[in-house]
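Reopening this one. Same input as before:
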Amino acid sequence: MTTWSTKFLCLVLVGILTLLSAHTNAIDPIRFSLRTSATEVGVNEEFEIKIKADLLNIPANTVYVFETARAFRLKIILPDGFQQTGGSYHDFIEDELSGSKPSAFYTLRGKFVSAERSGIFQLLRSHKSANNASNFVEVDRLLFGMSEGTQEGSSNARIALAGKISYVPYLSMAELRSITDTATTVFITDPFRAGIFKHNPSSTRADDGALTIVASSKRYERVYSGPVNVEWFGVVGDGTTDHTAALQKILDRTDISSIHFPKPAVSYRIKNLNMRSNKTLTLEEGTVVEGLGTLGLEERMIMMYNVQNVSIKGNNVVFKDQKAKYTSGEQRHIFIMLGVKNVTIEGIAANNSGGDGFYIGSSPTQKFSENVKLINISADNNRRQGLSIISGKNIEVISPVFSNTNGTAPSAGIDIEPNYPDEFLEGIRITNPITKNNVGAGIVILIDDFKGTNRVVDIAITNHTDDGSFYGAYISRATGAITGTITFQNPIWKNNKANGFCASNYSSSACAVQINDPTVIDCNNAGSTHALFGSAMLVYREANAIGDANVGNVHIIRPKVYDTRTVKKMVSAFAFEDVSKKGTVKNCSLIDPAVLEGLDALKYVHLAVMDNFALSDRHEKLTFDIAQANRLLTYGFFKKVFHNATSTGLRTISLNGLPPNYPAITFEVRTAQILRLIPLINDVILPISVNKGKYIQSNVVGSKITLRKIATNTWQVDEMVGTWTVQP
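Same output, byte for byte:
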């Protein structure tokens, strides 16, 4: 006799249909099968039946028939006349499958003791704690008899959707396309593309092998909710295959708005992609997207041009190119946004580019990008910048990290710099940025293109920390009138090769730069011995620079400066000078220094020609006791107040060679010893000393006098208290 087997995988247990009716996509993640190799068996002839359980590649969002559906207990209903004689199977045998154990095997040996015309072996499964009172579901059956029959192929293997009595074949896409099937629903088993597909008689969509399958003129469409999975389209991150074309097709489809990238085995490889409007990309934690290192001079990995409503989100996700292959050029960015609106990028790193990690700018038809949020992003080892902000309105950058930029200038962590006068820098908000070890500055701001325009600069940077870049922050090249404000709040600049902060050739009529509560630690690692270039914070103009009449409009509020090194390197805390001598340093403030530690007390402040300089010293960090030494005033020895509190005899202060408009200085008598102020031989102190070269002095405790240099040979008394006498 010929025996025959069939693989019916059925979930037809009516008793649980009501329970499962809400889960129309419920499915068993395990395929069970009964089969035998026996052909001619007779009465009392022993044969073996094999039982197998295979864990399927079913999408994570599928609803399962059982809780803890990878664990099970089994029962077999035996046909009349069959007796079990051996094998590893017994009723209520239990097991659990996993990625490390995807299959289980059992055997059932037995024989027919009477000549039955036919019999059915029914394999039932239930949950891992099932007993005789539990519901069991039929998952396969083996028809076996003593007469010949027709064997049903594996393509007729069925399961039923929970909640309705209809049957679903487990098939590959190729099998579905090659047969004529009456099923209204199928489960596709192809690796990475597995899922439930339903026949849609009204569909006209083309077969894409991902969302739609055409078989015998019938269209089956994937049942899913949420984003599409790029693996459904054959995009599998093997670290080798170039998926540029396949991913671009997905992005170009208007019927797909949300796209998911599972974490690849290695990486997704692409050259460049053009983002479209109304797209949401989510990338599983740890995903890597790697460039081919073949971008042209003006090509970018991810281009956003005049698009809107775009979101790209992940956690610990890296986009990277092959920087070593780009030995020229500076435009091969990872992410570029030109004239975009409503774009969010979150949790993404952009590394190893031939240009910038991120770039925000304008397009010919939209002169700014608007409502852009960059959240928890980072950029490392890029050729030109971590982030460039060229033109934008309402740009938020929250908790970014930009490091190790090197290759071509400016090599900054962040560069804020318009290219043309018709661009915008409005509502730029950067919060908690970290920059470190950039060849250029942590943050660069260059706004010269806005001079003489009606543009209003609005930039606020909060809690910036830089560690080890050339400058912590660098502002330069503003050579004319510009309106607006640039604000740093609570920055920490440390271990910089040059200054913690530097404003270079920045016009006093440009928008105000306000630096609130800055901290500078151990800057000037390069070891300059110059009072300007070895300072913690510098406002100056270079010797040969051109620009506006005066530089300045920088306001330093409540600064803290530390040099904690054994070998001190900071020459001064604050330096202000127009080295070109073209004009003055104007409209600047130094308000209430809070900490000045580890510096030479004689060199806290270096001042040259100043105009309209606001200075206060509530913490008396710029107050100096001349003690037992006579003093000579120089550019690098500015104090707001000199006094003689610990002097034990006559002490002199020589008013040597200071320029007009030098900040006013107060001299106080705090002990009953003579404090003598000596002008140069051709200088006068008006109005109390009209004769050239005559000193003034006092030994009356409480006496004080404030002097200001108003001309080359003239000091003027701004305020005088107590008794001061003039040399006879």
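So the earlier flakiness isn't reproducible anymore. For the record, The chain is about 5% helix and 45% strand.
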